[in-house]
Every structure is written in structure tokens, then in C-alpha cells.
Amino acid sequence: MSDPVRVVLGGAGGHGRWHLDNLRRLTGAGLVELVGVCDLAPVPPADLHGLGTPEQSTDLAGLVARTGAEVTVLVTPIHTHAELAVAAMRAGSHLLLEKPPAASLADHELIAAAARDTGRACQVGFQTLGSDAVAFLRKLIAAGQLGHVHGIGVAGAWERPAGYFTRAPWAGRRRLGGVPVTDGALTNPFAHAVATALAVAEAESLDAVAEVDVELYRANPIEADDTSCLRLRLASGLVVTVAVSLCASRRHEPYLVVHGDAGRAELVYTRDEVTVDPGDTSTHARTDLLENLVDHVRSGTRLLVPLSRTAAFTRVLEAVRLAPEPVAIPAGDQLVDRDSTGAPVRRVLPGVADLTARSAERLALYSELDVPWAPPEQALRVAETEVARYRWHVDLPTTSAPRPHLHPVRTLGGTVVSEVAPADHPHHLGVGIAVADVAGTNFWGGRTYVPGAGPTWRHDHGTQRHLRFARREADALDEHLEWLDQDGNPLLTEERAITARRLDDTAWALDVTFSVTNRTDAPVAVRSSATKGRAGAGYGGFFWRAPGSATNRTVFTEHLDGEDRVNHSRAPWVAMCGTTLDGRDWTLVLTQHDADDPWFVRVREYPGVGPALAWEHPLVIEETVTRRLTTVVADGRLDRVAAARMAARIGRTAER
């Protein structure tokens, strides 16, 4: 029988106590010997009962070197994992690294590089991945017993007291002292939910995840999320959703449901239970990951959860790290339990367990499930300033040609420079993409221009339908959409990218790129009313509806002034200015990239501006058409020289 493996424990508090119990079990079995404990505070002898008298130190690398530890169990705060994991491996120790393995993708790469350089094993503490239930489900899916599997949904709802989020300086934090922590429901307590779903889908490499769409919310007064959801689109085409909350009224065992067209299977991963048909439930064995690592060190047994198996999980964690700040759930949507002094001891979201279950069943995000505190909109920020809201699903009449749009859009000084559904044109929806005629379908809204009859009400209105986000960050959105005709048939698919960036103290830039691809088996024609004979009405494409209440409205290019001269002109840029009713001036400077479409402008009837995709002739889309446009949103009234300077600056930025 081999000598026990010498082990150092890094972090004996919190979850480290579970590891102490596990070490006691393995010590009793003669498999390990605890030779050292690294912690900032001395560990009381009572906590080490049955584990001998291991050396205690605050220097992990030195402790590993002095004790000759072969394995380090690292259970320290998330943001310390990279530094300490690298130190332990470079000091000569193999590693059991508690989940999540790292606070960022960059930290994950640092740990991976150290493992490669030292030849040391790094096992990650996703205990559920040591369960035979995962392999059982994989075989079930591969054998086709569920038919074609199109999605996996995960639901989890636990309750946590207020003290859970204040138990340590890093708890409930996204960052600490400028360093990523990435604590939160998805990445820490329910990290197993994400990792298990990826394992069942056999999607654990970094390139296995094609897109991540994240929604973060918080009921507690914390920085991180306590209620969140995500949807992954895997490179295989499979969809995975995870919906979780720490604000349930009681603990509900989290589960995973595999959706197949010939059946479904559920895994309660905390119990290793798989149910294929009602009543057909099997319970599977689970291998302890430290025990597996010990076998690997002594006998070369294959690691169950090497760091490489967690690459896709860390890709998801990185998306959570970069996601916009969690949205605060209004107090009116919460129940708050208080102590005798009135201090909150627990926050509950009524019905949240049912909500997570609906998400798993429908593979839907919270914003798609009619939740009052999760409206389908996203704030765009420049630094800490909210400058716009992107609304991707709104309850609008069919005659408005419903479509995602930006509103309100504001200057850095807070002046609103967009308008939705004004009385003069109810189908004008802030800032977005709108086209009068695509293969006979009206994606602009309102009446359709009919040659010989003029503007006419017809039942020909289409819809731009949001499909998913490929990226969603505080200052950037990448979105997939489809354009459906009046009968719900897809005409076009679209990839839309929106970014916001600061230019100076008084201006920021909104960059919008859209690529539309023909989904039909014949060329698709894009027309404006002008192509049908209505003079001056070339509207269609990117369109900015400014507030109709604005006074002193002007429009100009580098050489032209006024609506009559600018409308239908071609110029590198166009500027529109206005004044609010309380006397605040604003300016928009629009610049096209890689296109020379004529400008459509209105000033007298209403303030609106955008480049026209089709004016003199229809634009025929055989495959894909792409346009990019950047708008400077500025406080104050810029003159021609200042506007030209801004346009030139935007052009130089685009070239870089």
C-alpha cells in the first residue's frame, strides 16, 4: 500500500470546513496526510481534530515547499485563485482548485499555463462532474433515446439570508479594489448548474460556446447578482439555458431537463438522480474529486475534472463578468423578512421557483417570460452614465411595424434626443432600422405608398423579431434578428451591432452596424416611397427620430444648409441641431462608413434623419447587405466647423 499523499489545505474557513471533513475521511482511509494549513487566521486545534498537527502558515508557496506537499487543496476567495494556484504548482504541488476556477478568462489562462509549464495536475472542484449521472445522460442522448435534442434547461432556486452576502469582503462583489471577483448566483453557488449542463451537452472546450446571452438582477443591496439567467448557443447548435435565484422562500433542488423530440430526461444534480420517464428514476454513484486526484498522483488514474474541462464554463463566467451591472429589482416586487430591529434578514421574490422552472421548460430568459422586474430592454452606458435604452420587445400595434429600437437616447448632459410614437407619426420608434418596403412588406409602419393612390392603409406590416444576443455588455450589444412578413414568413435575417463610446466631456458616439441576409429563394427588393414615385420620400434604413418638441431645428452638411437642399443629397456627414423647451441645445452628427447613400431629412414637419437605402432605384438583396453608421450625440449646438471636426474624428476611429 502506498504512503498517504501529503496535502496542504489553502483556506480553512467557509467551504474549507467541508474539505476538512473530507480530509478526515480520507485520512482515516489511509489515503492522505494533512501536513499544512494556509490561512490568514490561525485554525483552532478543535477544527483539526483527527488530522494531526499540520504546520500553519500564511505563505502558501513556502508551506508547500517545506512540507513537501504533493497536493494542495485551494479553497480561497475567487479572486485569489490564479495567484495562489500558480504559486502552489510552481512550488511543486498538484492542485485541487475549488470552483469557480478563476475570476476571469485571463486568470484561467494563467493557471493553465502554469499547469503546462510545471507538468502538475489541476483538478477543479466541480463535484457534480464526478457523478456517473453525467455519463449516463450522455449515452442516453448519443443513443437517440430522446430523439433529436434541441435544448437543455436548468432551474435552481435557493434561499439565502442577508448575512450570506456579507460573510466576507468579496461576497456579493463583482470586483474588489479593481480586481475581478465575479461572485454571483450563476458563477458561484450555481456554478455547478452551468458546468453540469455544459458537461451533459459535451460542450466543455473554449470554442464549444458560440454565444452567451446573460441577464443579471439583484434583490439584495449587493454589487453582484442574486437572481440571473443565461442562454448559450453552442457551436453544435444546441441551446442551453440556466435560470437561478438565491431569493426563493425555501430551497428547491436544482435540476436539468434535456428536451428531445421523442422524450425528455431530468437530472437533479445534487442527488445524482436521473428521471427519463415518469417513475423511471435511477440514482448514480459519484467519485470524490480529491480521491480521484490522489489516485492520479499515485497510479496515473485519469483526472475526472481537469482544468481543460472547465474552459467553456470560464467562457460563460467571462460573459457574466463583462455583462452590464445587475438590474435592481424594485422593492414592490419583493417580500422582506425583518428582525426585531427592522433590519432585513432575507429577501424573497414571490414565485421565483416557478419562474426558473418556466425558463427551463421554454428555454427562455426572464425578459421573455413577462416578469415585471425583467422588462425586455437594456441600458447602454458610457462609463457610468446611461445614454440609451435598447428595447427589443415592445407591445405595439401591428400598424407600427414592431421592431427593436433605442429610446430614450440622451446626451451626456441628460437631454433626450429621441422620440417614440409621436402623435404626428405613431410608427416612428426612436432610433433603429426601418424600411418602407421589403418584397412588398412594410417594415416602416403607418400607411404604404401605392402608385396612383398615394399613402394607403394595407394589411402588409412586417415585424422585426429579436432572436438572441450574441453579446450584451454595458456599452455594446450584438443581436440576431429576423424580419417576418405579414404572414410570419422570414424574409431577412439580421446581425446588428450597437456600441456606445465617450468622445469628450460633452459628446459620445453611437455606432450601429446592421447586416441583412436574404432568407428567400429569390432576390429581395428594398424600396422606398421615392422609388414608387413619391417625390422626396426616400426614407428607409437607419433612421433617427428626434423630439418633435424641439425648437430652432436646423440641418446641414459640409456645404449645404436646410431641409430642401440636404434632403436627397450625398455628403460624408450630416448634422441636425435642436433646442429643448427649457432651452438646452443638442446636436447629432451622422457619418456613414463604406457607403454613400443619400441623406433623408425632415425638419419642418418633424425632426428626423438617416441615410436612404433605396432612393432612385430599388436595392436588390441577393445575399447580404451591410451598412455602418456612427452618430455623435453632443450637448450644445455645434457649428459647421465643430461638426466637421467631430465627423473627421469618427472617421479616424473607424479606420483604426
From TrEMBL:
UniProt cross-references to InterPro entries, sorted A to Z: DUF6807 (IPR029475), Gfo/Idh/MocA-like_OxRdtase_N (IPR000683), Gfo/Idh/MocA_oxidrdct_glycsds (IPR050463), GFO_IDH_MocA-like_dom (IPR055170), NAD(P)-bd_dom_sf (IPR036291)
Gene3D superfamilies for this protein: Dihydrodipicolinate Reductase, domain 2, NAD(P)-binding Rossmann-like Domain
Domain GFO/IDH/MocA-like oxidoreductase: 137-265
Keywords: Oxidoreductase
Annotated Gfo/Idh/MocA-like oxidoreductase N-terminal domain residues: 6-126
This protein's name: PmoA family protein
Lineage: Bacteria, Bacillati, Actinomycetota, Actinomycetes, Pseudonocardiales
